[in-house]
Amino acid sequence: MVAFARRATVPCKTSRMSVKKQTKAQSVPAPSTSGGGHLSAAGDRNDAVFRSLVEAARCMLVILRPDRTVAYFNEFAAELTGYTADEAMGKDYFETFVPKKVRRNVEEHFCRALDGTLIVDVGYPLQAKNAPIRWVVCSFRSFGDYREQPAVLLTAQDITIHRHTEKMLQRRTHDLGERIKELNCLFGLSKLVDELGIDLEGIFRGLVDILPPAWQYPEATCGRVVFGDREFTTYNFRRTEWRQAAPIVVHGSVTGAIEVYYLQKKPSSHEGPFLAEERRLLNALAEQLGRIAERKTLEKEISEISTREQQRIGRELHDGLGQELTGLGYLAETLVCDLQGRGIAEADTANDIARGIERALDQASRIARGLVPVEIDADGLMSALQQLAASTEQRCDVACRFDCRQPVPVGDAATAMQLFRIAQEAVNNSAKHARASEICIELHADDGQITLQVQDDGVGIPDDLEHASGMGLRIMQYRAGVIGATLNIECADGTAVTCRLPRGD
Q1: Spelled out in words, what is the top-level CATH class assigned to the domain 378-505?
Q2: Out of 61, 161, 310, 355, which could bridge 74 as a Cys pair, Cβ 3.0 to 4.6 Å?
Q3: What are the tens digits of pLDDT across the range 104-124?
Q4: pTM of the entire structure?
Q5: In Å, how far from its chain's centre is CA 228?
Q6: CA Rg, the chain, in Å?
Q7: E-assigned strands of 114-252?
């Protein structure tokens, strides 16, 4: 880079470095095109016409001497900068009109033009006198001799409006990109909620993964969801001073919060480094999670109510109708014996009535067992699964066994009921659809969770479970979600349906 000196120092290396010191004239003549393509100071009529054209041009025209000082300044240049021609004459152009942060680059273009090098246009902000900064795109070109000195002709166009329009488009493009990220985040949450069988824990875990991409600086973003005594975080979670949070409200009470952190300092915005749109997104996500939590809680309550109602009806069938039918059965048997002893022909009819009561009692018992397959005591699920295995062997003519290595108590009746229904549906599918010859029901507890698995040696189910038409698969997924469990279905040498429930739940 060539060193620059003001006025008396020649800024660039060139063959024309001998410069005569000149005194500034009261008025600077406009250039003309006479003299073999070089502008001169002739004042004939053609020069007057040319001077009028130059001054009327909506283009900034400036002639610079090798020492960077202004030798000519047209009216449009004065209009852009706020300096009159007299004020601009003799001033160092770069120190007066070019901001420091871009001055070096613009000076390089001037130097190359002075050496006769063909250069490209350069855009920069133009410093103005008592006026807003204007943006120009200018060209520096070797001008030949001007008043017996080499010179550079600077031509510049005002692009302020274009620059502002470009910045506005960039800003709106950026804003549109941010809105798209927000919509993707909200859509991602909706997709999580619509996923069959997913519980609140799965929703919270999924949400923290889609939080960072929705913020302005995703690479420097982390977050977490706190709900009750549970915490779900991004892989890079770390608390910092740049925090944004929103409470999760369920049934009028604050039960948790969503928190977003920036891991490094970012430019200030609406709320610290965070955008106003990010605040609105965070509030919307927290509100959505509150409603989802209320819905999931309601689903569980409905399931528990349904379970209790089934148990009530089952007990009434067993204790009420069952006992009544049992009494009628004894009376019918007594009547049959009495009529047969007296040789009355109606004894056969009485016997038919007794057998009918017996069948009705058996049917009522089966209905009661179906409604209340699991007793409320802690060992109820194990007993019910053992009975399920035995009845499956008897009904379906298939080997079915129950494997429970150690006691697995499930004290909550609603949870035990849902686990039994999952096992019941899986066993029925294995026996009826998979054409299995052997079915194994396993129940065990380890690693802080209860695992229920139904494994068969049948033909399996379609690999694309999402498009499987069976309603039973969807019902099993729903039942698992209600109790906060996960359900996996795998096909390898048969079908394995596995339900895992955290023991804390």
Answers
A1: alpha beta
A2: 61
A3: 999 999 998 888 877 778 888
A4: 0.44
A5: 23
A6: 45
A7: 122-126, 134-145, 150-158, 221-227, 230-233, 243-250
